[in-house]
Amino acid sequence: MTTNVFATAIQLGWSAKPQYKDGELYIDFHRKTLSGVPFSFTAKMKDGKIGNLVKEIESFVDAIDPEICAEEWMIKSGAVAPSRLRQAVSDMDAIRTDAWLLACMLAEADG
Question: How far is CA 15 from the centre of its chain?
Answer without folding.
Answer: 10
